[in-house]
Amino acid sequence: MYKLLLVDDEPWILKDMEQIIDWEEAGFHIAAKVGDVQLAESILRRQQIDVVISDIRMPGKTGLDLLTFVNRVSPHTLVVFMSAYSEFTYAKQAIEQGCFNYLLKPVNMEELLQTLEKCKERLSQQKEEQSLRQAYDRSMLLLEWIERDVALRQVIDQLKLADGSRQQEQQYAFAVVKSQAPLAEEELLATDRILARFGITFFRGRVSPYKWAYILWLPDLSVVRTGKMFRELRQLAAQCSWDVGISSHGLPADRAGKLYHQANMMADTSALNNITGVYRHKKDVNAAVPALREQIGKAARIEHLEAALFDVHKGIAKGRIHLNGLVELYNLFMLSLAQLAAPGGHADRPDSLTVQELVLHYGNPHDLLEEMAQRIEEQKKKPGEINALPIVEEITRDLDRMFAHRVSLKEMAQKYYISPNYLSHLFKQEKGKSFINYLIQKRLEAAIELLEKDISLYEVGRLVGYDDYAHFSKLFKKHIGMSPLDYKQQKGTTKPQASEY
To answer: What is the rounded (10 degree) CA torsion for 39, 40, 46, 49?
Structure first.
């Protein structure tokens, strides 16, 4: 039921307006009827009024004065004026100043009902827009906590999630829900109901069109009830084809960014095993990495690296190597291979890869394994040099044109019939920077321009090729020196240059 205020200096008109229709049936409650603008302003200061229907020409302050007041004090309130033909000039001014509609006196019942329907439609739109703004604000707040890696205690204090007397002993966790299709907030209601049923308080925000993050306040649950809750979550995830990652438990002193990235990494588990589901972060998530790190570090021949690569495959298959462990082993593998290939074992350090770059710029984590195998084969065959310049220039033009699309080193290499690793070598040789860094540069240059415009941070990331805002933000901060949020807030200062990294 919407609240309505009637304003007219003629008491008999107020009485007629009160009786002209069944206001409750039309969806409105008359909050008050007043005879002058000053009384109307007093009510608007004290109450939330959805619609004002007012005479436009009254002694003292006019309806136009009331409209100016409403625009300043209660901009979401709709103003409808009543006017006579002789007052058309006033009506024209009112429309120019933003009144919602005007009715000719004497007011016709049908016209009034049509106007009220239009008011309800606009109010409903405003409510939806407000809900979207609130969801966006929650998401930005969550992403700011992640970017700044604040202590959970700060998050708890802002959200008032816990009784202060129990805060130190309370445990928390992050969860990430990821879908292959855009994921609307309404689709998460089933998840919300499961959490509420088990007494879990939560705060959630959108991370990308396909991904939402939850902060969970964990009550003391028995092993049986915990198992039941996870069974329900797994059934829901399987039914919806979602990937769900859950961090380890944290205390108020732990960092929000660390727990979020644990949950986010676990939500990417299906990229390794091709099985969607609910995955919890455990201490042994990279149990195979220490031994493989030592094995790769001691490799004295190409054959030793071949054996290590075989063991990496086994570790992934057994769930003992996750994405961050795979990236660490890949970087170590490439360094070891470069040292074996260089005269005297002295080689330039290859560009290292991060987990974010793996997720953003490689179609599949298994492409890393394929690249490692191809690099071994190339080292064995030692291919002759080819004319690099024409190929690199063609690829550069492709990147300049298509940087906002999903572009991978592997796809470009296939297009020009060379291996991804060899293409990477040629590109860096000609351009002085890696294929990935060139692509990032083009995207961030475009992002800097877009951040100067009235476009949401989500949309900026999407328009330059990054659907996941958290990944985009971390990459932006790494190369530009501040987050997109900070840059947008400081856009009046000197522009940073994406080409400076």
So the answer is: 160
